[in-house]
Design a protein that fits this description.
Layout lengths: L5 H11 L12 E4 L8 E5 L4 H9 L4 E4 L15 H12 L2 E4 L2 H4 L6 H9 L5 E12 L2 E16 H12 L7 E3 L4 E11 L4 H7 L3 E5 L3 H9 L3 E4 L2 H5 L1 H13 L4 E5 L4
Parallel strand pairs: 2-3, 2-11, 3-4, 8-9, 9-10
Antiparallel strand pairs: 1-4, 5-6, 6-8, 7-10
Helix pairs in contact: 2-3
């Protein structure tokens, strides 16, 4: 079996998902890393939880790749708070933690928005695909938010049912408000759409699909007659696990790679 150091894997991942494409507020990348350790296995998950760390240990895995960084805000002390407990458990088991967060989100070829669209709609259902906001790094385009226009109009309730079925979400895991019974133009922001509401309103969609909307965002959308579906961070972003697992399998099928889901 091919041997690969954690540092070597990270270099290959960051060629496809460059760290400098991450948002300025983010902490994508090497959160807790033993660079010179040889990889025994990889666990792909959305969040580094205590259960995920224990699962990795039970399966002789020494690298966890998550979407959300285990360290996001500034840490001044390692005490008994939840994040500190996770960090101490990783160190105890000599398990590294790496995150592919907004550098994955903004990737046009294999990112969160594009993969969600592929899951929900077929190519022949979409007549146009634009981006809410985009930027270039070293002559490559990255984007935040997707704007799609459907070939045929669709009932709002049918979109809700489609999201519930495709993402396997219970009724209690999704909230929505219908201002337009018929939908054709859709903005999709899988993570928090709170920071991009002005751009959403400017694009004049029938529907916004996102998560973590604030009260004032909902008021703004209501006054602009824009329907929304709030399917939670976990509900929309858990597709990262399958997507990144497939990416690793296709590119580094030389050691054990497992997936880990939590029930939220």
């Amino acid at each position: 079996m091919t041997k690969l150091l954690i540092s070597e894997l990270i270099n290959k991942i960051e060629y496809d998902f460059p760290i400098n494409s991450s948002m300025s507020y983010d902490n994508s990348g090497a959160n807790i890393i033993c660079f010179d350790n040889e990889i025994s296995g990889i666990l792909v998950c959305l969040d580094v939880t205590l259960d995920a760390v224990n699962y990795a240990k039970e399966n002789n895995i020494n690298l966890i790749i998550s979407h959300h960084p285990i360290i996001f805000n500034e840490i001044r002390n390692i005490n008994d708070d939840p994040v500190s407990k996770r960090i101490k458990l990783l160190n105890k088991f000599d398990i590294s933690a790496y995150s592919c967060h907004t550098n994955y989100d903004v990737n046009i070829d294999n990112g969160m928005g594009g993969n969600l669209i592929k899951l929900l709609f077929s190519d022949n259902e979409i007549v146009s695909h634009e981006f809410l906001d985009s930027f270039d790094i070293e002559n490559k385009q990255y984007a935040i938010g997707d704007i799609i226009t459907l070939k045929d109009k669709i009932e709002f309730n049918d979109i809700v049912s489609l999201i519930k079925n495709k993402l396997e979400l219970e009724d209690s895991k999704i909230s929505y408000y219908n201002f337009n019974h018929i939908v054709k133009k859709i903005v999709i922001i899988p993570g928090s759409g709170s920071g991009d509401i002005d751009l959403v309103i400017k694009s004049k969609p029938d529907l916004l699909i996102t998560s973590d909307l604030k009260h004032n965002n909902i008021i703004d959308l209501r006054e602009e007659n824009i329907s929304f579906i709030n399917a939670t961070h976990y509900g929309l972003e858990k597709i990262f696990i399958e997507s990144f697992y497939n990416y690793l399998i296709n590119k580094f099928n030389c050691f054990k790679i497992l997936k880990y889901y939590i029930n939220l």
